[in-house]
Amino acid sequence: MFLYILPTGSVAASVVRKSRSVYIVKFANPNKGRKIDMADDVLFEFLHMEIVSHIYKDQASVGGMDKDRATCVSTLEGMGFRVGQGLIERFTKDSPSFKDDLDVMKFICKDFWINVFRKQIDNLRTNHQGTYVLQDNKFSLLTQISSGKQYLEDAPKYLAYSCGLVRGALSNLGMDCVVTADVSVMPSCKFQVVIQKI
Amino acid sequence: MSRQSNRTTDSKKMNSELFTLTYGALVTQLCKDYENDEEVNKQLDKMGYNIGVRLIEDFLARSSVGRCQDFRETADVIAKVAFKMYLGITPSVTNWSPAGDEFSLILESNPLVDFVELPDNHNSLVYSNLLCGVLRGALEMVQMAVDVKFAQDSLRGDNVTEIRMKFIKRIEENLPAGDE
C-alpha cells in the first residue's frame, strides 16, 4: 500500500478496501467531495484572520493603553504558544521519544506542519549548533493575501501566531527556543528557531 | 503502512483540535482584555459576524446549494449542510414558532467546547457566542436579518446546547445612490 503526496503538498487519503483484500487508496480531491469532512482548515484560517484583525484594531481602545505593534505581536505569539503546547501533547502522547534535537525538528517539519498547515516544510537548514531555518514556500496563512509587494509589511502579523505555535510545541518537547519568522516573497516564509542553551 | 490511514483520520481530528484550542485561546485573551462578560460576548459576536460574512461565500462555493424558498428551508440548510460541513455535527431543528419565523437548533455536542470548563466567576459568559455572530453575518449576506442567541448552553449545566434563531426581515438590495 502506498500513499501519494499530491502536487499541492496536501495529503488527504482514505483507504477503500476491496473484496479481495486489495487496498486501494482513494484521494480526496481538495477541491471537491470534502462535504462530509469537517472543513476545519477553512474555519481555522478564517478565525486566525479575524483574531489578527481584532488584536490590531483593538490597539488604541483597550483600557486607554497605547498598544503598539510589538505588544500585538507578543499577544498573538502568546496565544499560539499555549495552543502549541496543548496540540503537541495530544499529538505525541502515543509516539516514542525523540532521539535528538534534529529528530524533533524533522518531526515539526513533517508531521506537525502537515497537521497544522496541511503540508510539509519545504526546506530545513541547520548549522548543527542549535539554529534551524524552516522554509515554507507556500505558507497556508499567507496564500489568502495577494502576493505582490504591497502587503509585505503586514505579512508578519499573520506569522506571529504560528511562531508561537512552534515555540509552544518545542517547549513541551523539552526545547526552549526563540522562534522568529521572516517574509521576503509572498507567500513563502522562513521560520528561524534558535535553541536556547541554558 | 496501515498506520498511514490512521494518521490521516488523526489529522482531521488534530485540525479540529487546532481550531478548538485556538478558539479557547481567543476567549481567554478576550476575558483578559475586557473586564466583564457582557463585553466579551459582544466582541465574540462582532468577530463572528466578520467571519460569517466571508464564510457564506466559502459555504456557497463548496455546497452549491441554491436559493432557499423560505425560512424553513434555510433552517434545514443551516442544520444539515452548513453545520455538518464546518463542524461535523448535525443539529436538529425544532420548536418552530406558530408564525414560522423562529426556530431552535439543538446541538447534542458542541465541538467548540471540547476541553472547556467555565470557571465560577464567568457566569454570564456565552462561550460559543462566535457562532451567533457567524450565523447572523452569513445570513445577512443572503439578504436575511436574523436575531441569534443561545437559549441553553451545555457549558453552563444545561443538557443540550440550544441556539434560537428569529427571522426579523428580508434585507432589500441597496439601491445605488441617486436612485433614492
TrEMBL record, chain A:
It comes from Umbra pygmaea (Eastern mudminnow). Belongs to the TRAPP small subunits family. BET3 subfamily. Its main location: endoplasmic reticulum. Keywords: Endoplasmic reticulum, Golgi apparatus, Neurogenesis. It comes from the Eukaryota. CDD domains: TRAPPC6A_Trs33. It is found in: Endoplasmic reticulum; Golgi apparatus, cis-Golgi network. One of its GO terms (biological process) is nervous system development. Component of a transport protein particle (TRAPP) complex that may function in specific stages of inter-organelle traffic. Specifically involved in the early development of neural circuitry, likely by controlling the frequency and amplitude of intracellular calcium transients implicated in the regulation of neuron differentiation and survival. GO terms for cellular component: endoplasmic reticulum; Golgi apparatus. This is Trafficking protein particle complex subunit 6B. InterPro entries: NO_sig/Golgi_transp_ligand-bd, TRAPP_component, TRAPPC6/Trs33.
Automatic annotation (TrEMBL), chain B:
Keywords: Endoplasmic reticulum, ER-Golgi transport, Golgi apparatus, Lipoprotein, Palmitate, Transport. One of its GO terms (biological process) is vesicle-mediated transport. InterPro entries: Bet3, NO_sig/Golgi_transp_ligand-bd, TRAPP_component. CDD domains: TRAPPC3_bet3. The keyword Membrane does not apply. It is found in: Endoplasmic reticulum; Golgi apparatus, cis-Golgi network. The keyword Lipoprotein applies. Pfam families: TRAPP. GO terms for cellular component: endoplasmic reticulum; Golgi apparatus; TRAPP complex. May play a role in vesicular transport from endoplasmic reticulum to Golgi. Homodimer. Belongs to the TRAPP small subunits family. BET3 subfamily. This is Trafficking protein particle complex subunit.
